[in-house]
Amino acid sequence: MSSTAPSFGDIRDAAARIAAHVRRTPLRRAAALSARLGADVFLKCENLQAAGAFKSRGACNAVFSLDEAVAARGVATHSSGNHAAALARAARRRGIPAWVVMPRNAAAVKRAAVQEQGATIVDCEPTLAAREAAAAELVVRTGAEFVHPYDDLRVIAGQGTAILEVAGEGLSPSLVLTPVGGGGLLSGTAIATRALWPGASVVGAEPAGADDAARSFAAGRRVRQTDPRTLADGLRGELSERTFELIRRHVDAIVTVSEAGILEAMRVVWRDLGMLIEPSSAVPVAALLEERARGPGGAIVVIVTGANVDPALAREVTGGA
Asked: Domain 8-54+154-318 class?
């Protein structure tokens, strides 16, 4: 693995490394959504992944690639939820300790998921600076290996493995859509997609209220996230220099969607497939519904990233079902 970017070979190696520790998630055709859009839309259901999100891929690749001496010291991270739970689960499977810095306002369902996996939670204020400072102090105090939620080559390579499973289903999409927050998933997905289907378009989608990736992509330089306001709590982070460069090199477009569109996308997936997906997962579906992203013909693949939904929001989306 190079010091700046994982290769397609690194993604294939990651797939082999994590095979025993993650689920091969289904690829489902969304019939009603396909009819509505006049295109075959397939959802890669990482909402059915271990720990309820795609983050298990990157976390497992990071944890199981550590040598024994480093692993014995444990792992640490900062995360608002899904990466935290995924890293805690991976550490538990390897039998090593895990520490997680979480903002005090993290969703209760995500905090509970971390606790269930046996990780030690360290609270911090709900800012990126506070998270990073607390994590740095934690690493010094414990000697744990820091595994960044997205600015980590091992994590990026792991996230790219979902696309290998799409290829294994015999599908050749013309458009691949993912949410974008920190950019790890989009980076790994784009690298794998470019290797497998060079003519396919790769598009990232994010909330209009947390649009640093779209602004960065348009400006040709990284624009910092300021005061993100969105229901999609998993997308309130910002690109790193590494993920920005990978996205600029491999991604065709970044689009934004409305908060109303995110909720409607959650409802559409619930009605169409009976799946409750979290707001961050719904963002690329919203991009299709709001006609922010269009395929040039052929199949469209959307990576649906997680299923960890606040209970009150779940009742709103499902009508109490």
From this structure: alpha beta
The string of DSSP codes covering 184-227 is HHHHHHHHHHHHH-TT-EEEEEEEGGG-HHHHHHHHTS-----S
Count of C-beta atoms within a 10 Å radius of residue 117 = 20
**Matching CATH topology for 8-54+154-318 and 56-151?**
yes
- The SS3 assignment for 40 reads coil
Distance CA 168, CA 12 (A): 12
Domain 56-151, what fold? Answer: Rossmann fold (3.40.50)
Report the alpha-carbon distance of residue 80 to residue 86 in Å, rounded: 12
Q: What is the DSSP string of 65-124?
A: TS-HHHHHT-EEEE-SSHHHHHHHHHHHHHT--EEEEEETT--HHHHHHHHHTTPEEEEE
Nearest-CA neighbor of 244 among 267, 226, 223? 223
From the list 233, 239, 277, the residue with the least C-alpha distance to 103 is 233
Give the Cα separation of 184 and 251 in Å (integer).
12
Cα 66 to Cα 91: distance, rounded to the nearest angstrom: 11
pLDDT digits (tens, 9 = 90+) for 79-99: 877 899 999 999 999 999 999
297 pLDDT above the threshold of 80: no
Three-class SS of residue 233?
helix
Domain parsing of the chain, residue ranges? 8-54+154-318, 56-151
First to last CA, the chain: 47
Name every residue whose Cβ is closer than 8 Å to that of residue 249 and which is 6 or more positions away in sequence: none
Q: Which pTM was predicted?
A: 0.94
DSSP helix/strand/coil, 21: coil
- At 171-223, the pLDDT tens digits run 999 999 999 999 999 999 999 999 999 999 999 999 999 999 999 999 999 99
